[in-house]
Amino acid sequence: MSEGAPERRVWVIGAYRAGEHSQMLALAEALGWPFELKPIEYREIGRPFELVRGTGFFGLTPECAATLVPPWPDLVIGAGMRNEPVCRWVRKASGGSARVVHVGRPWADPASFDLVVTTPQYRLADSPTVLQNALTMHRVTPGRVAADLALHRERLERLPAPRIAVMAGGSSGPYAFGANAARRLARQASELARSLGGSLMISTSSRTPASVSEVLDRETSVPHEIYRWRADDPENPYFAYLGMADRIVTTFDSISMLSEASATGKPLYLFDLERDHAPGAGPVPHDHTPDTVGYRLLMRFGPQRLGRDIALVHDRMIAEGRAVWLGQIHSGQVVAPSPDVERAVARVRALFNQA
Among candidates 261, 244, 227, 239, which has minimal Cα distance to 338? Predict the structure, then answer.
């Protein structure tokens, strides 16, 4: 921000998916302006209103809508189809002065936002209001990692080095994460740790089924600890694992986790839920759910804009040397983290003619 430039009032409209929520907070924190998180509660009767791209808070509970009152913000950060009508309403209520930044995939025309910060998986056309980042925005900062390490370092140092963090996601889009993939992940991550004489630090996420957590713990055959995700847990060691890790393994279903792991500048392995990339490996048993089967049908027969293709992100990360597939040899050389947060901050400040 240029010297003497005014601070801007920011609202972050709470997202209903953890990855998008984290991205919005990452942007708000990086901007350095005072911001207020507006938790959102929905009512099902508002679904049709959201689908027709309305403008207003009809989809919110009365109690939630009552919190959206002046003074109006200068900037609104939102994500997700259900929050788009709210962001449009705040801009309208502000007399059009509030800027609206949408994170991820917009369901309305991107031109209806002041800025859309997105990634290749959504295949948005280039336009003046679209910023195409290589990876998602993240909250991996030296300060956050150091604070978490202070809480967990003594315990984690008891694990044999080198320590490998294993970040487990869950079923997403066309990819299912069940017992088959969990057994293979536990085996391959254990083999990697054993080859180095090290250990594993396994973190599950909000999307990881309890059955998968059990398989990962039971089938891991080297020294390890496993953190089973709990909502709003102040002792969640996720950032400490990133900081303590010498190498990182991340399931490929979450672009947010891939971005956070890549931001550490440490050797990164992607775990494919459907294929074994070890030399000479054959076909592997797949996991399936009704949701993942339905998504595959949508990607094949539905309009392209309704789906996402996260393989575009995987391919780019591999091509740029940011990661290798688990089962392949990593040279140990790493590429500088992608400056996605900084690029987004610059574009948002430009909305207010601030450098």
Answer: 261
